[in-house]
Amino acid sequence: MDGASSEAGDAPVEVLGDIVSQYEAETGQDVPEDDGETGAEPPPEQQGYIPKSAFIAMLAGMFGMTGGAVGLRTLHDASRRPTFVPAAEAFYDVCVDTPALRFLIEPESRQIHNYIAIGWFVTPLARECFMEMRALRAKPVNDNKPKPETAEASPDGPADDGDTPSAEAVAA
What we know:
The chain is mostly helical. Helices cover about 55% and strands about 0% of the residues. The chain contains 6 helices and no strands. The longest helix is centred in the last third of the chain and has 28 residues, at about 110-135. It is elongated and about 100 Å long.
């Protein structure tokens, strides 16, 4: 392997460290450290997966970046909810237990990085397309169009527009 390849392999670790730092700075909360549960299997980190704390920070960053990209404050601030960390921890455990989801917690996963890159392109593009379609469907406002003339009311009552029967016609 050449030097460029090994540097590219270190990039996910650096990105995760940046995400952890950003999450802690924005929320004022420390990312919880892994509890190192004991059991029949070694902890996920010893199985070759990223630490749970890094996964939580990555997930928080993904919500924040996606919310910012699509302009949804609720999505952007999702990681500030008190239920976020327990949900993210549960999601991590599901990833450990589900082979099809393990790419999300593998440190050298090209798949997750590809999905993130695709998402960063597609998400704002889709938002802009929806906004453009909405604008195209909106009825154009034409201020130069002459307004229809309306009959003016007289002191004796409404003006005769020709459709209103006269008092004599009604009496007859």
